[in-house]
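The authors assume throughout that readers already know how a fold can be written as discrete tokens. A single example would do more here than another paragraph of explanation. An entry of this sort, consisting of the sequence and the corresponding backbone structure tokens, reads as follows:
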Amino acid sequence: AVSLLSSNENFLDNKKKTHGQKGDVHGSVEAIMDVVNTYDSHDACRLDVIHSGVGNVTENDVELAETFDGIIYTFNVKVPPEIKKLADEKGIQIKPFNVIYHLIADMKTEISSRLPLVEEEDVLGEANVLQEFLINDKKNKIPVAGCKCTKGILKKNSMCKVIRSDRVIYNGLISSLRHEKSDVETIKKDVECGLMVADTEISFEPGDIIICYDPKSVAQETDWNPGF
């Protein structure tokens, strides 16, 4: 079987997987196509079949893979040395399989690799604002949240959300943490501190919740379930 993968960068971060297939016998091709046709996640990553057939990998298959920036999958067929050499020269991968399950599993991996990363928040800690202080910085008055860490830790230079009445009023950097009269890097649970953020126009109020977190990018996995 021959499968060609390509990127479609015209629609946000979605990717396009273009697929062509050639197997050892018609039954193999049909069996693989039956599985491929169960794919229903085109909104996340399109899957198009551009070629299927029986026989060994040919120069034309390699040229198609090059055109679509693809990967060639083979199923129970040989790759002539000259074709393998041509593919290597063009930077085209040829992936041989003799078990349909393994072939489809690899396709799922390839599809997943083309999905955009998802931004998630690794929550470090939480604090309650007790009161606001204003400190003088040259001609400006800088707001400081007098707060108490209630969960986990607070960490300088981490991101935080300031939540008031279930609404996020600030989402940005923690620029400073002070405990008593000292600048500190972290604040532990049950410790009171003064917290400043990058936005000096913010106004803190008693009862505000501050959630400290580190952002992280997480790889997605396709939700395609071929049934095995």
